[in-house]
Each structure stands twice: as structure tokens, then as C-alpha cells.
Here is the input.
Amino acid sequence: MKFSVLVEVTLRSGIADPEGATIERALPALGFTGISSVRAGKAFRFDIDAANADVARDQALSLADRLLSNPVIEDATASVEPVS
Amino acid sequence: MSHVAVVVFPGSNCEYDAAHAVSALGGTSDFVWHTETDLSGYDAIVLPGGFAHGDYLRPGAIARFSPVMEEVGQRAEAGVPVLGICNGFQVLTEAGLLPGALQKNRGLTFLCQPSRLAVRSVRSVLTRGARVGQELDIPINHFSGAYTCDDETLAELHAHDQVVVTYTQNPNGSRDDIAGVSNRAGNVVGLMPHPERAMSALLGSEDGRVLFASFLGLSVAA
Here is the structure.
């Protein structure tokens, strides 16, 4: 089965995020109020052939751990959907 | 006299400066392409600055999978002096040969300027000819140079004398002003500033000489 995967990588809580902080500071000037806790990150989309969704997710998280994120400072999450 | 491997990745751009710094002190070096897998003929290894593999994904993230890196790891394990400068430091942290990580500078500013460093440990191969507290003018040139690590790692770095050099005025938000660290054994060192660009008073500073002399195992008056 083919699954569509979205891996999101963000800096771990407690690690300074200068990009997120800069975006947050810019928001009031654009008229956006009440927005806090902005975190910037990266997103990766790809397809995986796997027996089921759990296997696909495990592979995606393994890939995220080894390459797509630096576990020293970043967290990764993966969401998986079957490709129809 | 030391014979040094200067590893060249696609996108490295400080390899000539590193080779010049070695030869200025009487050493010899070869440029070693990142696909090589045998570094047994070398007394020391330099990973120079630049943008290995375009810095795609994260600085050092792709370079750590270059074929040469397994050999760098094995030579490091064997006690061979390994120096990562700027991008080379980022590669060494991504490869797990040095603790911590380098993230974007505070203020998201690319910094290319002189910086003043203080030597914190003389146990490392880069500083064994220097004095603790000695101040050095060495330029920085980076965007992702803010050293970061978790509390536990930071405590270990201090406990085992692995903080090699710090900034006297923190330019980039590095944790505890850290500019360079070593592994536990002291033979693997990474730093963001560029000592290879501080080899001549005529060009602004020759404070890099004491560091390269240490790295090459030469005795120098600090």
C-alpha cells in the first residue's frame, strides 16, 4: 500500500527559536493580535510503500530521526494517510 | 612534520586557507575528496569551512553521510587530531563526533566580523600550546553559529574541560559564550571562528598561529 507522509520538524521546547520569535514580533504590525508561541520549522512530504500505516509511520520517524531532524535540538512528528 | 588531510566536500570553500595555514607553519597537506575512505597516511585531519553539500536540510546534515566521514570517525577514535572549522564544526556535531549543535544566530544575522576569544582549556589538540585565559583575535563568518546543547551536556562539557574557547563578547547567542568544544579525549575539536584567517598580522591578526601550531604538535611560546 502507498501512504502519503508529512513529517514536521520543529525546534525542541526550551531551544531558542529566533525565526519563530522574529515572526511573532512582526505580527502586531500587520494587525494580527492574540497570537503567541510561534515556532518555525520544516515540513517534508513523501510517499512510502508499506504494509500498513503503522509501518509507514515507523519508517518515516526513523528517517526523521536519522536525517530530516537533528534530535539534539529538534523534534519530529509524522502523519500518514493512504494514497487512494 | 605533520602531514594533514584537508577534507573537501562539494561546497567547501576554506580548504585553501586551511592548507595555507598548515604550510605557513612548515606542515604539508593534501586535499582529500569526500568520497575517499582511507586517511591512514595522515597525522591530522581538518574539515574546513564552507557549505558542504550546499548546507541543504541543515549545515552538516548531508555531509555526515559522505563516505569519508566513517574514516574520520575511526581516525578520531584512534586519537588522531581532528579539527572542524565553522562548517567543519557543524559537520562534526551532526556526525556525533562532538556534542551539541549549531543553530541560527540570535537575531538571524549573518555575522562576518572580528571576534575576540578566550582560551578556556589547554587540554585540547588545538590549544595545548596556549595559556588558559589567553585572548585571541580570530574572525567569525557564519549564519548558524550559535552553539546549543541541553543542560546535561553543558554540565558534562564543563566537568570534563571540553569548552575550548569562548567569546569575550557573545556575538551570536551561543550558550555560555561557547565558540569551540572538544570531545572527551581532547583530540577532536570544533570551533566556529576561523583561525586559518588569522595567520598574518598584515591581514589583521596572527593569533591563529598558536592554534595551528598546537594542532600540528609544534611547541610555541604562548
